[in-house]
Write a structure and sequence with these properties.
CATH class: Alpha Beta
Number of strands: 5
CATH superfamily: Trafficking protein particle complex subunit 3
Number of helices: 5
Shape: globular
Helix content: 40-55%
Structural class: alpha+beta
Largest sheet: 5 strands, antiparallel
CATH architecture: 2-Layer Sandwich
Strand content: 15-25%
Order of helices and strands: HHHEEEHHEE
Length: 164
């Protein structure tokens, strides 16, 4: 029951944030995405401050999940491997890649409740959060991009760039 009440309170706040995001996107256009991304980077860095560093992406994702849970963020994600992949972790020219599924995303749910489109400024805040957290945890730049944004889940590609 307590979790249900917490989720409702969070969703009410996120609907309010959805309204702000919608208004900001209308007022300033594409700049809203950059502002939200930077806000997410700052949040990710702040909340992951002091987390043990690692070069292992799976451990970094576990640490990121723990940071989210510790701060009562209901933002559940899991690594995903297609049937033709040997491993969840893939190496590419860009860096280390992991596909992530967000089945229970507070942002997606809030956008649907408010009636706003996905892939906007609030989604960019999520990308920023991951970039900031992984910068602290792995000491490397990263990007999170939408492969598919759906009603029941979002499928995203996380790329952690090679160390310079």
């Amino acid at each position: 029951m307590e979790t249900t009440n917490q989720r409702r309170a969070l969703q009410d706040a996120m609907v309010f944030l959805g309204a702000i995001a919608s208004g900001t996107e209308q007022a300033i256009g594409e700049s809203a995405n950059n502002i939200s991304y930077l806000a997410g980077v700052n949040l990710g860095k702040k909340l992951s401050d002091g987390v043990a560093r690692t070069d292992d992406i799976q451990q970094a994702l576990d640490s990121t999940r723990e940071v989210l849970e510790k701060n009562d963020y209901l933002w559940l994600f899991e690594p995903f491997k297609t049937h033709d992949q040997e491993s969840v972790v893939q190496e590419s020219e860009e860096g280390t890649q992991v596909m992530l599924v967000f089945r229970d995303c507070m942002i997606r749910q809030s956008l649907f409740r408010f009636g706003h489109i996905q892939k906007g400024s609030l989604c960019n805040m999520m990308y920023g959060f991951f970039a900031g957290a992984l910068q602290n945890i792995m000491g490397r730049e990263s990007s999170l991009e939408i492969v598919h944004a759906g009603e029941n889940a979002c499928y995203k590609k996380l790329t952690v760039r090679r160390a310079p």
